[in-house]
Amino acid sequence: MLENPRPDAVICCHIWTLTPVGTVDITAGPVMAACDDWKVTVRGRGGHAAIPHTTVDPVVAAAHIVTALQSVVSRNVSPSETAVVTVASIHGGEMFNVIPDEVEMVGTFRTFDPQTRETVVRRAQAVIEGVASALGAAAPLEVRYLTPAVINDPAVTAWRAPPRKRCSAWTGSAAASAPWAPRMRPST
C-alpha cells in the first residue's frame, strides 16, 4: 500500500471535541498516544452473601485491582514520560445477595514511547495477577495492541500552508499546539 505512487509524507486527521469548529491543530512531535485496550476476567468462587467466608469474592478482588492499578504509572513511569491506565468498565453479578463467580473489567493503556508501553503492560499484568492471586482469585490480562502513537515529524508539520488551504472549514488560523498533546522533552 502507498507504493505507487509513494507519498512524500502522510498526515493523519482526528476529530477532537476540544478543537473549535473550523480550526486545524498542527503540532510537531507527540500528538496522539498509542491506544491499547485490555480485558480482565477476575475469576473467584461465588456464593451466598450471608456466608462470604465460603467464597472467593471477585468483586473485592476487582476493587483491589482498580486501586492497585493506580500505582502502575505513578511508580513505574518517569515523570518526564506520559502514560495513562484507565479502568473504564466493571461488571459482575446480577443479584443483591449473591457473590458472583466472576467480574469483567475493561480499560485502556495510553502511551507515547514504545518502552513505556511495554513497561505499563508488564507492570499492569503483574499487579492484576498478583492482587487477584493474593485474594485467592485468578485474573489473566488480555491486551489488544490497537494503534501506535502519532508523533509528527517537525519538517512535515512546518509545511502546513497547502493542507490548510484545502480545508473546506478553514477559518484562516491554526493552533500552534493541540491542547491534549503531552508536554514532553524532545527525543534524542
The class by helix and strand makeup works out as alpha+beta
Overall geometry comes to: elongated
**What top-tier CATH class of the largest domain fits best?**
Alpha Beta
Number of helices: 4
Radius of gyration over all CA atoms, rounded:
22 Å
Summed up, the domain count is 2
Query: Into which percentage range does the β-strand content fall?
Result: 25-35%
CATH architecture of the largest domain, by name, is 2-Layer Sandwich
CATH topology of the largest domain: Alpha-Beta Plaits
What is the spatial order of strands in the main beta sheet? 5-7-3-8
Q: Name the average pLDDT.
A: 85
The secondary-structure element order is EEEEHEEEHEEHHE
The level of helicity is 25-40%
DSSP summary, beta strand count: 10
How is the quaternary structure best described? single chain
State the end-to-end distance. 30 Å
List unreliable stretches of 5+ residues. Answer: 161-166, 170-180, 183-188
Largest sheet: 4 strands, antiparallel
